[in-house]
Amino acid sequence: MERLFLKMAVTRAMPVWIRYLAATLLVAGSLLLRLLLLGPGPEMPFLMFMPAIMASGIVFDRGAGIYASLLSTALGVWFFLPPSRSLVITEATVLLEVAVFLGIALFTAALLEAMHRALASLAAERAGLDQANDQLRETLAQSGTLLSEAVHRARNDLQRLAATLRLQAGASADVTAREALQVASDRIAALARINGRLDRHREEDGRAQVESRGFLEGLIADLDDLAVDMRPIVLTVRAESAMLPMAKAVAIGLIVNELVGNSLKYAFPEEMDGLVEVIFQREGETFLLAVQDNGIGLTAGAAPQGSGLGTRIGRALAGQLGGRLELEQVAPGTERPGLRGSIRFPAAR
């Protein structure tokens, strides 16, 4: 019905004389059909006129509908109501019948016109909405392009900075300074890798969101290539798919980089074989991020290995996510108790 009304825009724009002539022909056709089916008797005098009135209102406009209503009423009175061939009505019941029919016919014409206008207004609003959606999609595409360019530039800048620090570390005679520069270079290079993964696994609709599973799997693949090398250590990922804001994805990537790096450095001494697993899953209204290994673990009372900077960075980043980094043994009481670092943080922060 909606399509029918909208297609009538062409006929509604026709010249007035064509519309009224067509309405006249519709009413005349209804009159002939009434005479053929029921004859000239007074029974149901207006039965066949209503379709002509509705057709005039649908195909043309309110004016044609009102004209068809009035013409139908006049022809019904003239041909079928006593006294025959007269527009004079003497009986009250007949007058009431004519008034009811005319009222219904005029109301129908007005109702059809209101439907025409409402549907035309709805079509115009839809067209405007479609245009706005097209503009929004174009804007999102442009935003996605700009975002991708920004990520590329940031990654290139970070890579250049990391290379500069490595050169300075190689040229430094001070062992402490050289180690500090190398550590800084490694962390900046890690941030550059994370930025690269952000762009690869970002949504194509321009939103600054990243798909978690592909992002973490790609990040662990990078770490496997760079840090594991020929060591008998396996890195695995068990990650659910979720859309993460870029800022949250960066923090998650840095935490994974630090915790996996700590496992590779300290959990498997003397070429020990091992497994490091990264877990990311949703638990109700929170996300769980965990990195666990089956290495030598932490010995109670023993001096911490390394500077502890990686753990401090992990705790700080966990705080940014709204969670807290917890460290615990995976298999306490065994020869290889392992270590598990886990963070639970709100999913909708």
Question: Can you give me a brief rundown of this structure?
Answer:
With 349 residues, the chain is of the alpha+beta class. The chain is built from ten helices and seven strands. Keywords: ATP-binding, Kinase, Membrane, Nucleotide-binding, Phosphoprotein, Transferase, Transmembrane, Transmembrane helix.
How does this model look, in words?
This protein has 2 domains: 2-134, no CATH class; 208-349, Heat Shock Protein 90 (2-Layer Sandwich). Strand 4 (274-283) and strand 5 form a beta hairpin. It has helices at 2-7, 9-12, 16-38, 49-59, 62-80, 92-171, 175-200, 212-228, 246-267, 309-321, and strands at 209-211, 233-239, 243-245, 274-283, 286-293, 326-328, 339-346. It starts with a helix and ends with a strand. The chain contains 10 helices and 7 strands. The strands form 2 sheets. The protein has a 5-stranded mixed β-sheet. Strands 1-3 form a two-stranded antiparallel ribbon. The chain is an alpha+beta fold and 349 residues long. Helix 3 packs parallel to helix 5 (62-80), helix 4 runs parallel beside helix 6 and helix 7 (175-200) runs antiparallel to helix 8 (212-228). The relative contact order is 0.06. The model has no long low-confidence stretch (mean pLDDT 80). It is rod-shaped, with a radius of gyration of 40 Å.
